[in-house]
Amino acid sequence: MVIVDNDRPRDAQTLPSSADTLPQDSAARVRTLEQVVAHQAALLEREDEVHRILVRVVLAGGSLHDVCDAVAGFFGGAALVTTTDGRVLAIAGDESEVERVRALPCFDRTGRLLVESEPVGERDGTTTGAEPTRALVKIVAGGSDHGLLGAFSPDAALTPTDVHMLERAATVAALAITKEQAVAAVEGKYRAEFLRDALAGRAGESGDAVSHAASLGWNLARPVVVVVAETDENDEQTTRSPEEVRGLQERFVRAWVQAVRARDASVPVAGFSQEVVALLPADPTASADAVMRTVADIAKVVRGDGGGGRRSFSTGVSRPITSVGDLPAAYAEARKAVHVGRQMHGESALTHFDALGIYRLLALIPDGADLRRFVDESLGELATDDSPENEDLRRTLSVLIDTNINVAETARQLFFHYNTLRYRIAKLERMLGPFTTDAQLRLTLALALRIHQMRGI
């Protein structure tokens, strides 16, 4: 007979488990089943927790940073949202983890995620050295691809269940992006209209324009330079569909807006057709080189090493101005710098208006055939690239003219022996005439050499 102590709490009584009453092999199977059930219960509990957190983010109208912060909390590491071409829109997590993530080889020197080499979905489940395991999922809304949501775990490998939870978070990120784009579209419309009026001289008195700009979050009460960035691909002659062209231009504008605002949120910046215009603050006493370094840093971020499907673009910079009334002239300078700079240096050119020199006048000639004839008549057989020797002789001629026919200095710059250079001068004079003694001929040849360097003539 079994005696049960009824005064003992029920949960403290010794009761046989289901596994204790079964044969050994059956008991093992039961314990395995109990472990599976417990594991699934833990996963469901975690998914329920993730669901509650994401719902709170949605109801609070959370931003992309809020989404990243929640995802970073799930996995104890860092999380980020990027555009389809890899520009980081938001990143969150412990500061040390964020620094580790940014130092990973999956980011280039501009901070862009190398999306073209990063797989979407679960990665290799092993963690090597200090590199955290990571997973990326697409952010899709309304059939449009808005970018990627990534999770970086410092310890455990990310499982298919983790990726599934990340996909649920990507849905919330899609809502946040859609909301931000809708707000930005409305704000961008009014800002772009105002900036277009200011660049055309239709913004009214300077005081009124400065006040209106301030109401839009822009600062025009300081000296600025006008920066114009224009895609090198001619959208009017492209084989791309209108939808693709529009999407690429919107991406181009967003890249510039993000890069500029990361430095100064009060800088006016907007996109028009094939170009983006920004009014960067500039010290009127600063050198052109100092201004160009700032613009080059921004352009480097926008370009992102050209990866992720980014199109090449050329950039022009005006002289500094101190009044809103000078904006139309500065805008014309920046546009001229873009177009002439592309002719001088090719695609991806970065040109200051003051660096155009004689090219400013040459660009005014609408007929490239006239320029080509002038080059052919002035340089003769040197105008062609039929042989490598022609290019070499043009280089020698250019340095000679730049040094005002200083033979010793030319030989030093070209690393030629003095007698070798004398031989070349004699050969050039047989081909072109006595340019060493004829100043007018030197001027003609110098102009022809400059035109020869221009593209599209």
TrEMBL record:
The lineage of its organism: Bacteria, Bacillati, Actinomycetota, Actinomycetes, Micrococcales. Residues 14-23 have a biased composition (Polar residues). It comes from Ornithinibacter aureus. InterPro entries: CdaR-like_regulators (IPR051448), CdaR_GGDEF (IPR041522), PucR_C-HTH_dom (IPR025736), PucR_C-HTH_sf (IPR042070). Belongs to the CdaR family. It comes from the Bacteria. Residues 201-340 form the CdaR GGDEF-like domain. Residues 1-11 have a biased composition (Basic and acidic residues). Residues 393-451 form the PucR C-terminal helix-turn-helix domain. Residues 1-23 are annotated as: Disordered. This is CdaR family transcriptional regulator. Transmembrane segments: none annotated.
